[in-house]
Amino acid sequence: MDILGTFLGDKELNDQSTDVKGLFDKFYDRLVYFSFQIIKDQEYAEDVVQEAFVKLLNNKDILINSEPVLKSYLYNSVKNLSLNVLRRGKVAERYMQLTKTDDEPTTAPIVEAIISAEVFSQIHRALDELPEHYKQISFLSFFEGKKNQEVADELGMSINTLKKQKQKAIQMLRLKLTSFLSLILALFIFL
């Protein structure tokens, strides 16, 4: 309460005064998200929220009021400050780039990374469920990139036997992955 006391000056601190640090901890993330929705720039959003709290500290009459009043004050301040940032043009170019629509919609890189990780996880899980012999053929062929003749020589079998067993492994993988791959395809179509 020393910081709060410093900003309030001679006013007496009582049970109704609100701890600004507690308010900051409680509302900071929400307000940054709110500001980010307006200006589309994380650093500017953080600056805007900090500026709103500085304004709150400088407006000593607001500090005595209730939490709903403070919450309303903070959201309105953040909204107005965010709009001011846009008006000043600090992020106008970035905002225009983000809101500009392309002819072909693109998937956000983070979503693509999540989908890729999940696809690889499902493929590895399906490979682990294959009988050992088929798993070995698949690993050597697909992950190590060996040619059919190299795999056949390494496993001591004819190339025709290898081709048949490799085809059987692919069929088993397709069966295990069909529903999952349909889901992934649907995600890419709708994203």
TrEMBL record:
InterPro entries named in the record: RNA_pol_sigma-70-like (IPR039425), RNA_pol_sigma-70_dom (IPR014284), RNA_pol_sigma70_bacteroid (IPR014327), RNA_pol_sigma70_r2 (IPR007627), RNA_pol_sigma70_r4_t2 (IPR013249), RNA_pol_sigma_r2 (IPR013325), RNA_pol_sigma_r3/r4-like (IPR013324), WH-like_DNA-bd_sf (IPR036388)
Transmembrane segments: 173-190
Keyword Cytoplasm assigned: no
Molecular function as annotated in GO: DNA binding; sigma factor activity
CDD domains noted in UniProt: Sigma70_r4 (cd06171)
Pfam families: Sigma70_r2, Sigma70_r4_2
Gene3D superfamilies per the UniProt record, alphabetical: 1.10.1740.10, Winged helix-like DNA-binding domain superfamily/Winged helix DNA-binding domain
Superkingdom of the organism of origin: Bacteria
Ranges for domain RNA polymerase sigma factor 70 region 4 type: 122-172
PANTHER family to which the protein is assigned, alphabetical: RNA POLYMERASE ECF-TYPE SIGMA FACTO, RNA POLYMERASE SIGMA-70 FACTOR ECF SUBFAMILY
Recorded family membership: Belongs to the sigma-70 factor family. ECF subfamily.
Protein's name according to its UniProt entry: RNA polymerase, sigma-24 subunit, ECF subfamily
Species in which this protein is naturally found: Pseudopedobacter saltans (strain ATCC 51119 / DSM 12145 / JCM 21818 / CCUG 39354 / LMG 10337 / NBRC 100064 / NCIMB 13643)
